[in-house]
């Protein structure tokens, strides 16, 4: 039975006879120069994948160092570019531009003999290249005339696990934590290796193992030894391990009186702790820190700045090559304060004050992983600071693991947003890649992206079979932020389900529309943060708790709805480049999908839809529900094209999603109607 455990690493037999025979001719043998744990991982994957796809185990041979290319037989060659014979097949530019993690794949021939070269400067490049070759086969492409140059545009491509040491996962909807702390370090489960394979197949090279709402226990010797075992298991796959660091650790673990980042005893404590960490975990990546945010301790407790805190930790890590990822997610629920402005207000003045091994990790929007927000104005406002993006792969605000929401569209939307930092065309992708100042040497660029993982112990890892696509898409966008959501969805569908275009084409379309569908039935037209306050599941525009009121996020009243973030309101627009501030200040030039983010709009006012605000709002909610019904129909017509297990499971999930889309629609429409006091448009009378 197909249970989804193999993710996109399914190596189904190639049924097309011609293609299968071509692959058999090309891949009957594999040659390497030298073994290493990473090369062995690549070989294992290739042998297994090729055997499953073409029914033949390739034989493995080794080539003596320094030898010329031997054209006796067809074969696949995995080789580092320090072999002169291999290097000679490529230009200097090609060899240089792939850097430390990229690879080159090329079909070369002499007379009738054909060889496929996978070449790289490093072992990890060869592993990444091997996964690329397998992907070509999984998606049924010809290997006849390959000429591929691939390299990652961002250095740190990281999954953040919000995993607690007791096995629960904050905002995790796919079971429990993968890390079995009780049986570590002795037991290395196969699942850890499969996790590493999946990540390596998409170029993810880092994992923060524990929750940003951190427990200091993860920094104790006992847990460092366990973490070291995981780090060692992941190493052949190019994955570094990171830990979150609770700012109060010197007090809690070190029994110091303070955690003040400028206190010499505190500085010493972190230096010693870091030394201990590297003793156990020589390839440790560094710390991720949530400080002075949502009750977490931080430098603010001692009247110090974020820069004081981050730099102190960064100095301790520096001698070992470690880094600090310092989050910008900070806010206070002060009455009348616009939460969207707070991160920028706190961090913008610190631009240029962070050490060179610190990155600021900012969420894509200024509030919190909402279905749609304006982009976070910190991107484009911190030219002298390494900025990394934080996406959320787990669907905290997108119907958990029940709703089908392909996030590739969301990743693409934000990465392509124009910040205007250096005039038009300064996309967030460019800001992240630090291509804004082209004079910066490549090697000085500390760049990165993080995604909050949606992975757990569920048999299919992610809960929803389509949740796997979001993990996959995150990796692909991390590798290249200018990737296309469309082609990523296509690759993923082919690898995960089938190459049948009768399935791939309609379901790709369904995936690409799915995020907007969820926006329509949850938070259309720029609404945000109106979900149930406690669970973040289902509607809750009425939620009200001491110190927190959903009305601060939607501002519905007898006049209209939406937040005025222009100069007459909170003036959040002023945090953007002047060209954008002007655009967002004017309702007519504000993108329709963000009008309620930036403006308070009268119920009877006509908006760009051609209808009044009220009627438009209601129509979006109704449209969202109809769209889910259409998704169900499309899915039903796929019966027989894929395995029954996953077909039936997704059928059930879509049915539930349809019910819940109605719940959102009815809850929100009826709630807002109390303010609008207007009837529903005539075509929106469907009950229940
Ligand atoms: O999205 C919110 C979540 C919290 C989370 C916080 C954060 C880990 O509701 O559960 O805490 O953001 O990103 O720090």
Automatic annotation (TrEMBL):
One of its GO terms (cellular component) is extracellular region. InterPro entries: A-glucoronidase_C_sf (IPR037054), GH (IPR017853), Glyco_hydro_67_aGlcAse (IPR011395), Glyco_hydro_67_aGlcAse_N (IPR005154), Glyco_hydro_67_C (IPR011099), Glyco_hydro_67_cat (IPR011100), Hex-like_dom2 (IPR029018). The active site is at residues 294, 368, 396. GO terms for biological process: xylan catabolic process. Pfam families: Glyco_hydro_67C, Glyco_hydro_67M, Glyco_hydro_67N. Belongs to the glycosyl hydrolase 67 family. This is Xylan alpha-1,2-glucuronidase. It comes from Arachidicoccus ginsenosidivorans.
């Amino acid at each position: 039975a197909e249970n989804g455990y193999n993710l996109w690493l399914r190596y189904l037999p190639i049924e097309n006879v011609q293609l299968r025979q071509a692959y058999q001719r090309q891949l009957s043998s594999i040659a390497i120069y030298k073994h290493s744990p990473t090369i062995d991982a690549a070989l294992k994957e290739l042998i297994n994948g090729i055997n499953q796809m073409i029914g033949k185990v390739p034989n493995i041979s080794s080539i003596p160092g320094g030898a010329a290319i031997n054209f006796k037989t067809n074969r696949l060659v995995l080789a580092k570019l320090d072999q002169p014979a291999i290097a000679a097949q490529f230009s200097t530019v090609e060899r240089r531009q792939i850097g430390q993690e990229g690879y080159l794949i090329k079909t070369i021939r002499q007379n009738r003999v054909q060889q496929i070269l996978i070449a790289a400067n490093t072992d990890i490049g060869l592993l990444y290249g091997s996964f690329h070759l397998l992907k070509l086969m999984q998606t049924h492409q010809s290997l006849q005339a390959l000429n591929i140059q691939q390299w990652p545009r961002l250095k740190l491509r990281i999954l953040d696990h919000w995993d607690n040491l007791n096995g629960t996962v904050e905002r995790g909807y796919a079971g429990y934590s993968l890390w079995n702390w009780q049986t570590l370090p002795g037991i290395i489960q196969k699942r850890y290796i499969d996790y590493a394979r999946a990540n390596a197949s998409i170029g993810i090279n880092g994992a923060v193992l524990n929750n940003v709402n951190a427990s200091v226990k993860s920094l104790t010797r006992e847990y460092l030894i366990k973490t070291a075992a995981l780090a060692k298991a992941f190493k052949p796959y190019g994955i570094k391990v990171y830990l979150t660091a609770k700012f109060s650790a010197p007090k809690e673990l070190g029994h110091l009186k303070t955690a003040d980042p400028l206190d010499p005893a505190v500085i010493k404590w972190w230096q010693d702790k870091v030394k201990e960490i590297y003793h156990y975990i020589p390839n440790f990546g560094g710390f991720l820190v949530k400080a002075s945010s949502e009750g977490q301790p931080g430098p603010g407790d001692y009247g110090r700045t974020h820069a004081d805190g981050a730099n102190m930790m960064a100095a301790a890590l520096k001698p070992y090559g470690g880094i600090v990822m310092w989050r910008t997610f900070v806010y206070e629920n002060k009455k009348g304060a616009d939460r969207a402005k707070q991160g920028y207000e706190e961090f913008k003045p610190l631009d240029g004050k962070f050490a060179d091994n610190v990155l600021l990790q900012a969420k894509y929007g200024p509030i919190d992983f909402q279905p749609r927000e304006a982009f976070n104005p910190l991107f484009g406002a911190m030219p002298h600071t390494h900025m990394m993006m934080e996406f959320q792969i787990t669907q905290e605000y997108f119907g958990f693991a029940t709703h089908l929401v392909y996030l590739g569209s969301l990743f693409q939307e934000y990465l392509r947003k124009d910040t205007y930092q250096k005039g038009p065309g300064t996309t967030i992708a460019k800001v992240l890649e630090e291509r804004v100042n082209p004079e910066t040497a490549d090697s000085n660029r500390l760049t990165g992206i993080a995604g909050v993982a949606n992975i757990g112990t569920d048999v299919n890892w992610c809960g929803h079979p389509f949740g796997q696509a979001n993990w996959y898409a995150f990796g692909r966008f991390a590798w290249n932020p200018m990737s296309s959501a469309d082609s990523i969805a296509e690759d993923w569908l082919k690898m995960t389900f089938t190459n049948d275009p009768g399935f791939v084409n309609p379901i790709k379309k369904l995936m690409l529309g799915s995020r907007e569908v969820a926006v329509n039935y949850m938070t259309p037209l720029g609404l945000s943060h109106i979900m149930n306050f406690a669970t973040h599941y289902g509607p809750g525009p009425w939620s009200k708790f001491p110190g927190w009121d959903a009305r601060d996020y939607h501002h519905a009243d007898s006049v209209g709805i939406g937040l005025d973030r222009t100069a007459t309101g909170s003036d959040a627009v002023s945090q953007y480049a002047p060209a954008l501030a002007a655009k967002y200040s004017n309702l007519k030039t504000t993108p329709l999908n963000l009008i309620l983010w930036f403006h308070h709009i009268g119920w009877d006012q006509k908006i760009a839809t051609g209808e009044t605000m009220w009627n438009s709002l209601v129509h979006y909610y109704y449209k969202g529900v109809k769209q889910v019904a259409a998704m169900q129909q499309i899915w039903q017509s796929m019966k027989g094209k894929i395995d029954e297990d996953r077909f039936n499971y997704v059928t059930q999930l879509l049915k539930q999603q349809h019910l819940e889309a109605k719940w959102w629609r009815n809850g929100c429409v009826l709630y807002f109607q109390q303010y609008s006091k207007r009837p529903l448009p005539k075509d929106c009378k469907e009950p229940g």
